[in-house]
Write a structure and sequence with these properties.
The protein is an alpha+beta fold. The chain folds into four domains: 95 residues, DNA polymerase beta, N-terminal domain-like (DNA polymerase, domain 1), CATH 1.10.150.110; 48 residues, 5' to 3' exonuclease, C-terminal subdomain (DNA polymerase, domain 1), CATH 1.10.150.20; 139 residues, 2-Layer Sandwich (Beta Polymerase, domain 2), CATH 3.30.460.10; 61 residues, DNA polymerase, thumb domain (Beta Polymerase, domain 3, 2-Layer Sandwich). 42% of the residues lie in helices and 14% in strands. The chain contains 16 helices and ten strands. The protein has a five-stranded mixed beta sheet, sandwiched between helices. It has a three-stranded antiparallel beta sheet with strand order 8-9-10. Strands 1-3 form a two-stranded antiparallel ribbon. A hairpin with a 4-residue loop joins strand 8 and strand 9. Bound molecules: cytidine-5'-triphosphate (CTP) and manganese (II) ion (MN) (3 copies). The site of one manganese (II) ion (MN) has 4 residues, from loops.
Length: 364
């Protein structure tokens, strides 16, 4: 019998990187509501409420038991008064937030690939309230990414199943083997964490030949294009040589060569048929991200790109508890004034004095 008293709650650690969080979320009812609030608060510059709700959701996701009432949640870290109220009245509070907030259009707008909070806000302020209004407005200028976001909206907003992600992995793997037989491709992001569902598929591509990582992505994109599978590409060449690491700014993007793609996934490649592939067409659009770090930075890239709030808390833990700076490039010990090398993710956890967590335990 599982105890749900304070004794058990006292074992909930304050940082997500100290908790094992699988995809088996026992408090989805509450975390879904909290995540709507997180998304809603992304509109504002004030990060307090967003961070607070986001951390509370992470804590609830890690619990091995289902919360039945507000009572007994006092001892949980990061679960404040507002979250406890939400737990108490989740039914109507959730509906209120989702159905009655005027800014729900903002959440709709940011669901388009290429549309971030700034653009969504701009459109909202212009009085635009629907996709058809945006597309009909002669003064709205869509960039290439947004044009493709709208063009493939139905497919992309559907997300991908794990079976579809495996099919994408096979396509990308074959492509890389053709153009760069010595390169290695590994799955990262949500599907590495064992998620059954995701909004894209993320891969790290590496090679042991120094400097060659920067030519990999153009080769791969070229081959995808030849096969008629490349619907959209945005390539960002590496700026690593120009930058200082580790990034001083928390949550900064990394400097590696990377590309954001929309690929054509043929239904015949998906085991079990791929229910999301429209029958008459035989293919669907999928979002794919590729990143190509130099081999000596692989462990840091892998840890960073595996993602979720686990990753954010790992950086915060490093900074606050260890006086170290962690990002997708490196781990820097400020007291010793030196970089700490790592070949595997386990090395990084060890440097931080944390128990190793498997990728499927990082679904914070
Ligand atoms: N990432 C990044 N820079 C980007 C995009 C992604 O560094 N421009 C890295 C981040 O480290 C992020 C990880 O890729 O944590 C995964 O991001 P994302 O694909 O958005 O999230 P997932 O966790 O994979 O979830 P899903 O795709 O299912 O939404
Ligand atoms: Mn992803
Ligand atoms: Mn995402
Ligand atoms: Mn991604």
């Amino acid at each position: 019998q599982m105890r749900t008293g304070p004794a058990q709650q006292s074992t909930v650690c304050p940082y997500a990187c100290q908790r094992r969080t699988t995809t088996a979320n026992k408090n989805k009812r509450f975390t879904d509501a909290l995540e709507v609030l997180v998304e809603y608060h992304e509109l504002t510059e004030i990060e307090g409420p967003r961070v607070a709700y986001s951390r509370a959701a992470s804590v609830l996701k890690s619990l091995p038991w289902t919360i039945e009432s507000m009572g007994g949640t006092e001892a949980l870290p990061c679960v404040g008064e507002k979250t406890r109220t939400l737990i108490q009245v989740t039914g109507w509070y959730y509906s209120y937030i989702v159905l009655n907030i005027s800014d729900q259009e903002y959440i709709l707008f940011t669901s388009v690939f290429g549309v971030g909070p700034k653009t969504a806000d701009k459109w909202y302020r212009r009085g635009l309230r629907s996709f058809s209004q945006i597309l009909a407005d002669p003064d709205v200028q869509l960039n290439r990414m947004q044009q493709n976001g709208f063009l493939h909206y139905t497919d992309l907003s559907r997300g991908l199943s794990a079976a579809e992600a495996r099919a994408v992995e096979a396509v990308v793997g074959e492509t890389v083997r053709t153009v760069a037989p010595n390169a290695r491709v590994v799955l990262t992001g949500g599907f590495r964490r064992g998620k059954e569902f995701g909004h894209d598929v993320d891969f790290i591509v590496t090679t042991a030949e120094p400097g060659r990582e920067n030519s990999l992505l153009p080769l791969i994109m070229g081959r995808l294009e030849e096969q008629g599978l490349l619907l959209f590409q945005a390539h960002h060449p590496s700026t690593l040589a120009l930058k200082k690491i580790p990034c001083r700014r928390f949550e900064a993007m990394d400097y590696y060569s990377k590309c954001f793609l929309i690929l054509k996934l043929e239904g015949s490649r998906v085991q079990g048929g791929g229910q999301a592939v429209p029958a008459g067409r035989g293919w669907r659009a999928v979002r794919v991200d590729l990143v190509a770090p130099p081999i000596e930075r692989f462990a840091f890239t892998q840890l960073g790109w595996t993602g979720s709030k686990f990753e954010r808390d790992l950086r915060r833990f490093a900074r606050v508890e260890r006086n170290m700076l962690l990002d997708n490039h490196a781990l820097f010990d400020k007291a010793k004034n030196q970089f700490l090398a790592a070949v595997t993710e386990k090395d990084i956890f060890a440097h931080l004095g944390l128990e190793y967590m498997e990728p499927w335990q990082r679904n914070a």
